Amino acid sequence: MTWSSALRKAARDGLTIERTKLTPVVAARGALGVAIVVGVTLWLGTPALAVSSAFGAFSAGLVTFQRSWRPRPVLALAVASGLAVSTFLGYLAAFDPVVFGTLLTVWTLLAGMAWAVGPVSGLVATQTIAVMLVTVTLPTSVMGALHHAGLIAVGGLVQAALIVLLPVRPWGVQRDALADALAAEADYARRLRHDPQALFDPQPLMDAREAAELTPRQARSRPRQLGGPRGVAERLRPVLAALADPVLGAPAEGPERDRARDLLGAAATVLDAVARAIRWGKPVKLPEEATAVLTVPATGPVLHGAARRSALRLMALLGDAVDATDEPVRRTTARGGHEHRHLLRPSVPRLVPVALRALRREARWSSPVGRHAVRVAAVVLTGYAAGTALPWGHAYWAPMTSVMVMRPDFGQTYSRGVARFAGTVVGVAVAGALMAFTHPGPWVCAGLAVLCVGLMYLLMRTGYSVTSACIAAYVVFLLGIAGEGWSQTIEARVALTLLGGLLAMAAYALFPTWETPRLRDRLADWLTANGHYALAVLGAFARPEERKQRRVREALLDARAARTAWEEMAGRALTEPVRHRGLSRSSERAAEAALATLGRATMLMEAHLPDREAEPSKGAAAFAAALEAALPAAAEAVRDRRALDWTAPHEALAAWRADEGEEGVAVRGSELLLDALDELATSLSPGPGGRNRAARRP
Questions:
Q1: What are 343's strand-pairing partners?
Q2: Does the pLDDT value for residue 298 go beyond 50?
Q3: Structural domain boundaries in the chain
Q4: What fold characterizes domain 516-695?
Q5: What does the CA dihedral 172, 178, 184, 187 come to, rounded to 10 degrees?
Q6: Does the keyword field hold Ligase (predicted)?
Q7: Which of 212, 267, 430, 432 has its CA 20 to 30 A from that of 560?
């Protein structure tokens, strides 16, 4: 992609407004928190204190709309605490420009590194920089600084209290995550009816797993309805694929294929019903037609062999899903001193060592997060110096725009820069016009600011340009409380926003962190993870008595994580104005399809893992050993642009087939696995023939 194309795409993405589900009640609750804090402070204090106090409630409300599985009151309190600390430290250093610039640089560097912990942590850290830049412009003493910091903390406390006192769909994000995973399984089952090779995006299952990670406090109050269906959904996916597959399941044509289609359709209906019940906390309602299909016909079984085993397993799992969901929606209070098992999520204090390990891992020059931290620190310091030198005042607007725009990747930084400027122009124009024609007093300005906050909370997910417009108008009205002139506010706001956005874009162009050159490394990581998943499944066939389901499960999770990392990097690389000289776009698509097929072939074998009493398979052991020996060299070949060699696994499979024939599930699954590896080798072949063949793939 050329620079002109990349810039056009970034502008188009930044100005796109999406239709999305709105949450007016939640938005009104967040705006109420801002209104309480601003109103009480304006009534009992001064306009300057009202402006300062608004930041705590505003940011605490903002973070509760982010995608996080932690309790919303905890998020509100955490961000308010961070804002209070950054405000107080900023006031202590504000007496000298050099000291403040040093503090600002160090704080911004640490805030940039916070993206290593997660996107919510990165957003919270970004907010602390913004409030440090803004509040220190309000003159005060050390005791006044303590008052400002305390008011900001109170804003978070008010938002947390409102969430507790006015709950809206408790456990709603967890319910939605689990319901989305089951709905994705239902959609997968429907697509398998017509396309046995249909692909499945595991992201909903990964989201549901993250949502199921609980702190000990959460585990004591989670509704039982959220406890069981996720594990069933995980076990359902390979069973659905195995039933539909024409090689390891029902034949491609005939009565068995018709029966398989009926079972898949009924499974989709049941999964949709379970998803609805979980989403709204109600009992499951199943259509009689689906229930009738999910029984063995009176005339006898239609399916045979592996397909019959998959069908019986499917019926049992769907029954488990309904039973787990149909339990009364009551709390999981521990009985007899024993808590229910759950995925552990560290509490906030125990998150500190986890965050420190993440920071230490990313504190290197080659890390995108590390480079982002250096880049944003340099830009914020430059923007603050430039804003101070310019005659408009409000020097913080330029660096604040930069820090709110900048992200560790190119696409988001440029699209947010365009959206920020466009939204700011619209927001200050509308707010400035109202200020010019109505000349509102402090209380009216406060009401208009709260209205803008409510609109921002309501429309936040429609696009960053809309959010920026609401924030720009909010700032104009907020400064109107303190008596700022509207004309000066508009002029400075637009000019310094443009300056901050241009600095952010220029910094990424001069000091980039391109994802495109690292595509082969991520592809090699995905190959390695998929290979380990295949080895875990083959190990269960080779030594059934030593089978450990946990090993297979952990290998599957690693493979999913590697696939997600690849897809995220490939998506970001599409927006970059650079080209990978060793990996064409057609080869990239073909390699991605081959590795997805490799994962699917392994999943099909996982659906037919033998019992512990089954006979060990020497052929599976020999094939697994050959594959394990070939994997490291293949991963290095992917990184170094060399040809992949799967000769040893082919020879082991040929010997296995000669010993056991072609009827075994493991043998046929291994054939599919090797076909995918051969396709990967073809797509990444360094010769022109391999590239051309890869390009002809649909």
A1: 213
A2: yes
A3: 3-16+24-169+354-510, 172-214+224-328, 516-695
A4: Methane Monooxygenase Hydroxylase; Chain G, domain 1 (1.20.58)
A5: -90
A6: no
A7: 267
